[in-house]
Structure prediction request, 733 residues.
Amino acid sequence: MTSAAEQEAVPDHAPERAGPPVWPGAPTPLGARCRTGPDGVTGTNFALWAGGAEAVELCLFDPDGTELRLPLTELTHEIWHGFVPGVRAGQRYGYRVHGRWDPWTGARWNPAKLLLDPYARAVDGDFALPPEVYGHVRDWPQQHVADTVRDERDSAPHVPKGVVVLDDDDWSDDRRPKTPWQDSVIYELHVKGFTRLHPGIPEHLRGTYAGLAHPAAIDHLVRLGVTAVELLPVHQFAHEDHLLRRGLRNHWGYNSIGYFAPHAGYSSSGTTGQQVGEFKRMVRALHAAGIEVILDVVYNHTAEAGELGPTLSLKGVDNRGYYRLQSDARRYADYTGCGNTLHVVQPQVLRLITDSLRYWVTEMGVDGFRFDLAAALARSMHDVDMLSPFLAVIAQDPVLRRVKLIAEPWDVGNGGYQVGAFPPLWTEWNDRYRDAVRDFWRGALPDVRDLGYRLSGSSDLYAWGGRRPYASVNFVTAHDGFTLRDLVTYERKHNEANGEGNRDGTHDNRSWNCGVEGETDDPGINALRLRQQRNLLTTLLLSTGVPMLVAGDEMGRTQGGNNNAYCQDNAIGWLDWALPDDPGRAQLLALTRRLLALRHDHPVLRRRAFFSGRPQGTDGLRDLAWFTAEGAEMTEPDWYAPTATLGLYLSGRDIPGRDERGEQITDDSFLAVLHAGHRPLEFRLPGPPWAETYELVVDTGREDQSTPPGTEHAGGGVITVEARSMVLLRVRT
Prediction:
């Protein structure tokens, strides 16, 4: 029976014109692949999994938008497929999928809606989200049932199209850096935000993959000393309707809709396939500089949101097959906070994700992935399960088990917090490191028990199942939250520019504004803020584990107190490259470079195994020791006592493992002193057998960070540690 809404909207039909024949083709691989068909005829094979569908039409589009619909009549194991002679690279296309409209059982087929191929490797156009792109009547008067009324208007003029891409690349000249985990330093950046204002990049390349590949951008990364860039999402994504209504856009990109396509908005060379080649050239340029490429990927949800969201791709291909639905199948299970959750236990969904991952490794050259809300991918039917199909497939896949795998080990559902629970092969964002370090330097830790674990590799979380210290990706800031500078400048979020009444973003910032909220001309407060930034950076880069920096933190970047700048595609979300012109910011950059060089040169700072904490020789020295301000080794009661000071001794003579030639690895030993107190401290240096002499290497209490202090101190003597500062001393024997 047809509803009133269905009767009032007459479907737009494509113009009738003769089209090419559609030969049977093959059901694999999925997507659109140029190939040679029978009798040497060139063309493209199209294959789409659409379980439960009654019919599928392939829609080809001319440059002027004229549409040609070609029925796919071959069906193999729920895959509709056909080979179209003469279709070549650059052809724009989409699908119309026919089937039942029965939202009460989760069936939402609507052939009036042009659908993006889930396997499209390039996308041309942008998602504007007018009413025509919704499978239901978006503006139905009774909104509580609007999702049940089918909209018959044609969406084709209003949605992007997939693009056929030619497989013609040869990676034989590429040399992957293959940096070991323990030697890795990750630099989280946004392709557009990092390059948009860079004065050394030609203006027409700023904000693009080519801009990131430019020597001016790569020079900063190399001089800084990072080994990998972690790119915020570069899968094709769409902008949410609520942002478009407020004149904003999704800047971060955590709203994916094309898992095989580089986001076209970051291409300087074109959007009908050119973005693919530009991305590959960027990867090659970074590899040539010794820098790995890690992608932040969002396989937990898509841009189609919940039952009131648009119909762009998976929802119209097979809603029940791709998404987790509630017992009331009209509604979506939402473990992501974004309206929907992909149903990863379904074979076709698992195939989509793993095919995408392998494609980015084998054909696009990337070196690893950071999985957004990874706990949602590890859910079986409901609960998080570390034996889930997704994790099992990754563990045995010959391509994926060899690349870097980073989990954001939580989602927003019940039982979703899984820090420390992911299996071997995986590393994890360690938010307990973030919280402990922030709390210590703002004076909010009741004792230093938790801090001790975080500085030494978080063995309480990761010393099981053969995992190593580098299972912990240590970070103090990330794209989500305050920047480093804002962390010491604001105690409250200031997200008014997002247009949500400052309700968005977390309230739990664990920040300290040093006495004044926001920017100030007070030289004393500004000096303290710079020192706090130096403290946080030094702590991060000297801790055991894998450090992650956020682009711009090394130069004092600010977002004006916005801790959720996901929709700020403007100066708030872009890196200001004029910051190093300020003397204080220049010193911060110099310190970061020096710390990363120190980390690179000293294996004791990037251990491959956890500390034992036990005596290693006849002299009783431990590989890891902790000291009070009096120069005495800490006892059990010391860990429970309130304190603002902690001494950490790292022995370079007791490093497990051997080098590539089988030789024992040895290094200098170091003593780090962290002092978060508001007054200077007299710290007694441990004497023999720990050390006869110490050389001061880093002192965050100094304004000038361009050169090491180089001062020597006798073991057993006393040094003055400035208020709220950190020192690193090298042991001299």
